[in-house]
Amino acid sequence: MSDAAAEPRNKGPLVFMNYDQDELDRCYDQSNWAPNTAIVHARTEVNCEIARQHLGEPERLSYGPTEIEKLDLFRAEEPNAPTMIYVHGGAWRSGTSRRCHMPAELFVANGINFIALDFINVDEAGGSLFPMIEQTRRAVAWVYKNASSFGADPEKLYVFGHSSGAHLTGNILTTDWPKLHGVPFTILKGGMVTSGMYELAPVRLSARSKYVNFTDQMVEELSSIRHIDRLHCPIVVSYGDQESPEFQRQNIEFAAAVEKAGKPVKLQVAKGYNHFEIAETLANPYGLLGRAALELIRTTR
Fold first, then answer.
1. Residue 85's closest CA among 110, 115, 61?
2. Closest to 70 measured CA to CA, from 118, 130, 127
3. CATH for 155
4. Tens digits of per-residue pLDDT, 233-279?
5. Residue 287 included in any domain
6. Portion of the chain with pLDDT greater than 70, in percent
């Protein structure tokens, strides 16, 4: 969990745990820990295009009133199929549903609908994370209410999120569904969060506060580790051992907190994978995430 590329320097005042400001900022910027970031992103673009060539273009459906509130649907051939909903990452600032199509082929081939969400980013939302949370929750509720319209079983919904998408997914999994959307607490059958953030207090202290207008309310309400009592389905938590120490800690402590609360959780470590590489394994039935996703759906459907 060390940053071998870091040069010796004088340590400044501590701002969180044993981190000074520079160290904490580095821990919440994954480019410092993944020198092949550009290569992985380019490879993802190519593999998403290959998936579309094999499956055809997805159906584009609206789940909310604004232009960005749309989802991409790849249908399985089987009736009453389970559905996996993918929430993309991108430091809350970037990413699109179209860059999440690579795993679609795995799910469709196994009789599972695959949905990738689009939603507002934090810059467009004026520095607030609340609109992102609201839109992604609305998307999941929409899928539950409209599943039968595209041949899906509403009682077999699953959600996956990577990076900042895992932060959003943590909040989706701990939603007060009856209060906010008038649907049961149990609308999700299972969830997967990969390389995410579940406690925003240290993130607020990092350089991410330059573009996220963190408030006490935001940190309290959108730190999913503080709302595990609202978690009502099994989850899988994963991270790569080449990620920054903070991202590793966040995932380890979230899984431990869920286990302590008596909720079903499985913690996975991707040996030799960095923050961006681990997401690619969702498209492989023998990869860490692909295998875990199929097992989660098989054992809970």
1. 115
2. 118
3. 3.40.50.1820
4. 999 999 999 999 999 999 999 999 999 999 999 999 999 999 999 99
5. yes
6. 97
